[in-house]
Each structure stands twice: as C-alpha cells, then as structure tokens.
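Continuing from yesterday's entry. The apo prediction looked reasonable, so today I'm repeating it with zinc ion included to see how the binding region is handled. Same sequence as before; SMILES copied from the compound registry.
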Amino acid sequence: MPSEPRIPMEPTLEELSAYLDHELDDGAKARVAEHVAGCADCKMRLDGLRQTAYAIRALPMETPPRTFTVPATSRRSVRWAPVAGWLGGVAAAMLVIVFGVMHLSLPPLGMGTAGAAHPVSGGLGQGAAPYAQGAPYRQVAPLEGSTRYAPDSALSASSSNSKTVMDAQSSSRSLTISTDAASYHASGVVTIHVTTKGLSTEEASSVRILLMRETGQGGYLVRLAAPSNAPAFPSDYQAAYSIPQMQLPAPVAGNYTLQVTVDTSDHSGLVAWLPLTITP
Amino acid sequence: MDDRDLVGRARRGDPEAFTQLIMQYQVPVYNMALRMVGRPDDAADIAQEAFTRAWEKIRTLRDAPFKSWLFQIAANLCYDHFRRGRRYGEMPDEETNKVIGLGIATPDPQERAEARERNRLVRESIEALDPDMRLAIVLRDVNGMAYDEIAGVLRVPLGTVKSRIARARAQVQEHLQQYPDFFPSTREDARAE
Ligand SMILES: [Zn+2]
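Holo prediction written out below.
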C-alpha cells in the first residue's frame, strides 16, 4: 500500500454524469468512485449533477389531454374494404363481444387465450376474425338480465356522466355514452348506455367498449362486451357490468377512462370517452 | 417489456394490437413531446401524429425495437415543429391538469405551491437548452431510457449521447443556480439551519 493515497485522475463532466446513470464500465466506475471519495470538489460537482437530474425527474408525468386513436388510414381502407364489401350489411350488424383484462406490461402471449372474440349474429366468424385473431381476451358477458333495449332510456337523460360526439364529416351521425354514475365502489356495478344516431348497418361495423387505465408506465384495458343480441345500427342499449368480474389488477381503486368506439365503413369512426372513478 | 407479439400483429394490420401499443406508449410519448415543445395541445398533436405515422409505416419496421422507432418518429415531429417556426410554448397552470405518475400530491398548499414553482423553473431551464440537448436529457430523465436506447432513438454514437446528457445537465444546473433557494444544501452561503 503506498504511503500516500493516489487519487485517480480528475473525472470529466461526462464521466460524472454517466456515473450517475450507471453507464460507465466497471473500470471507469471504480476510478470515478475512488476519486470522488477523496476529492471534495468533485463530490460537490457530482452532487450538483445528481440534484439537477432529480429535479428533472421530479417533473410530474402528465396525463394526455385526449386519448390517441388508431387512425383510419388509406392502409386500413385497402385492407378492410374488401372484407366489408364481401360481408355487406350483415357484418355491419355484428357486435363483437369480448371481455378481458390485459396487463399491457406483460407479454400478451402469457395471458389466457381461452376465448377469442366471437361474433354474436350467427355464422359470421370470418367477419369477426380480424379483430379476434390472436386476441388474448377472456370473455365475460354483461350481467345476466341487465340488458335493456330502450329507445328512450331514462339513463342518458338523467346521467351526470354522459358524452356525445358527432362525426366530423356529418353532424347527423353521433355516438352517446352514459353511465349511471361517475364513481363506483370496487364491488359495484357499472351500467352503460350506448346510443348511435344516423348510422345505418351499412355504415357502422362494430361497437367496442374499453375500460382503460393508465399508469405512469403504460396501462391496461378491459373490454366490455356489448349485449349478445344487441340490435343493429342505429344502436341503443344499456348493459350492466360487475366491477369484481372485470378482475382489474390491484389496486382497483383509481381513475379510469371508458372508451366506446364505433367503426364505420368510411373509416372515420366515432370515439367517445368518459372518466370513471373506482373507490376502494 | 416485450411488445414483439403486439408489433407482429399490428404489422399484419390488426388495429386492436396497435391500440394496445398506443395504450402502452401514449403517456411516455406524450410527456416526451410535452417536455420538448411545452404546450399540451402541441404535444398531443405530435403524439397522435406519431401514432398515425407509426401505424401507416409499421410494415416497414424490421428488427429495430418498436419503442426506439416510435420515439424516433415523435422526436422528428418535435424537430419539424421547431422548423415550422413554432416556439416552445409555456404550459397553462399545471395544477389544472391531471397529474399521474411521479407527482406526489402534498396536502400542504404552501408545499404544493413550492413544488409547482420548482417544476416551473425546471421546465424553464429545459426550454433554454438547444433541441439536441433537450431531447437527450428528456429521453434520459423524463423517459428513463438507457444510453444505448437513446442512441437508437437519436441515431448517434453512444459518446454523443453521453456528452449531450452531461452538457444538458450542466446547463440546467447553471440555470437553476440562479435561483438562490433551488439547491439550498449546495450553496456556499447557505443560511444556517
Ligand atoms: Zn476532483
């Protein structure tokens, strides 16, 4: 052991910064650590950089002001148009029913694939396939007996949690979603009312209801099935879903977004969403 | 995080799979754009455009990781935003925005006001960086990416990533040191506690 401790060479700004990020190789890392341990100036430099990095990391992750969507592009038109043409109005009347929980941070293959989405109007398996293929969703139907087909349901009229969106191309087309409350207990039941206006069975192909939750790192979503015998478009029905049956990942309490999408044959689509809160 | 299966399905035209990719990346991509351009509306436009382009082009994605590729698209859109002469826009009052993730709500209004002021200063100091340095520091300290991942997004050598992050931090630190209370413990003339 030398009589006088030999302090390694002064680290550069880049080395100190990379040291903080654990991005130095072992040799350089040891050298910086050893130097900093014996040099008050460099310890102060390092602390300053560390506090700066922490100050930036302390910026909150913001929630996007809107939900981003898969755009209706020419690419989709090319791909989907023949399918729609082939199946015609019958496919359009179909409501794909799927219900599942997916943790987006997990590889989807790890999730149960027992039930792929299935078409509800008879004999349209091929029509449903593009959405269902490989979709690792489990299925749960709306609560038994909860479905109502009521053109003038009181729910949307009285609901404090309701949203109507118009088609940008045609204001006569609209989609309204309402829930019977904005906040639910974790053991509660969510009743959803979906109404479309101005959409014929030729124009609209499917309704998809997603309950989504974002965390700082990705998020997850639950698909809520439309009722199995929902009428064709224009559509107007309500259905109830049990929150425990959704098997939401813990902690269940939190802020969610309910998103309803109607795919239209001209690919403009209608998307409406509502905030939902689940309390412990 | 393995999104290869989702990417594979999206490449075959499955919009459901792509929706899941959006769910997975919308918060990080939006926040990257937000810290780059400042204004929530602009950032949301950039994020949506990035997803649109990614969906249109996903068939051209070969072996590159989807995440780096997506962030590359979003980063290019941020640069386009500046090239069009759009300036960095200051956020509206952040308290009106719903905040998720790292933001820890403190019940004390004064503490909250102080945290808000600190965040404002940090945003201001990031804004003062040139876009190359800002992007490097945002990918590192906002998005938490490793250096090699950042090199993949920026398509620059690792050494360049290292140097941009270091210089960005030094500049941000210098900027924040103008405010006497920002780093109380490192101030030479810090008041006795
Ligand atoms: Zn030193």
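Comparison notes:
- Residues 47 and 128 of chain A are 58 Å apart (CA to CA).
- Chain A touches chain B through 58 residues (CB under 8 Å).
Will overlay with the apo model tomorrow.
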